Amino acid sequence: MTSRISLSRSPPSIVTAGTVVSSVLAVQTQGAGFVDLTREVAKFADEVSASDGALTLFIRHTSASLTIQENADPSVLDDLMTALDRLAPQNAGWSHDAEGPDDMPAHVRTMLTATSLHIPVLEGKLALGIWQAIYLIEHRTRPHRREIVLQFAGSVR
Asked: Which of 13, 33, 63, 139 is the most exposed place for a label (fewest CB within 10 A)?
C-alpha cells in the first residue's frame, strides 16, 4: 500500500546554454579532512555572471574527492571521517602502499565518494539547500595541492 504525498513543481524554464566558462581552482590542503569550497565556487559563478545553467566541479586526483554535505554542525564532518576510516582503514593489509599506508585507503575513499559534482544555478545563485556546502575531502594524511576544474554552462546576466 502506498501513502498519499503532496507534490508541487515550479514551471519549467528553458535556458539556452550559449556560454561555457571554465577555471581551475587550486587548493592546498592541510592533510586528511574537509575543505569548504562553497564560497569560492559561488564567487566563480558570480564572476562569470552566471544566470541559469549548470556548474560542474571535477577534481583531478584519485586520492581526494568532492561532496555536498551539511554545513551547520561540524560534528557531521567528524562523523563522516570516522565512517570513511571504518570503511577503508589504513592497516587493512592493502597490497598497494607505494606512497605509504594511507595510499590505498585514499583510493577506496575516493571511489566511495565522488570526483565530480553537478550543481544547478538558478537566477545567478547556486541551488544548494540551506544546510548544504561543497567540500573537497582530502584522504591523504599529508598536505597536498589539489586542482578542481570549475565549469559553468548556461546563460549569463
From this structure: 13
Instruction: Give φ, ψ of 131 to 5 degrees.
Output: -105, 15
How buried is 56 (Cβ within 10 angstroms: 0-12 exposed, 13-18 middle, 19+ buried)? Answer: middle
Mark 120-139 as b/e (b = at least 16 C-beta within 10 Å): ebeeeebebeeebbbbbbbb
Q: What is the mean pLDDT of residues 31-52?
A: 97
The answer to whether residue 89 scores a pLDDT higher than 90 is yes
Go through the chain and tell me how many residues it has: 157
Task: Identify the pLDDT of residue 135.
Answer: 98
> In the sheet that 64-70 helps form, which strands lie side by side, from edge to edge?
33-36, 132-138, 64-70
pTM above 0.70, yes or no: yes
- Whether 37 and 150 have beta carbons less than 8 Å apart is answered as no
Q: How many helices (H) and strands (E) does the chain have?
A: 3, 8
Q: How far apart are CA 20 and CA 50, in angstroms?
A: 10
DSSP 4: P
CB 41 within 8 A of CB 132: no
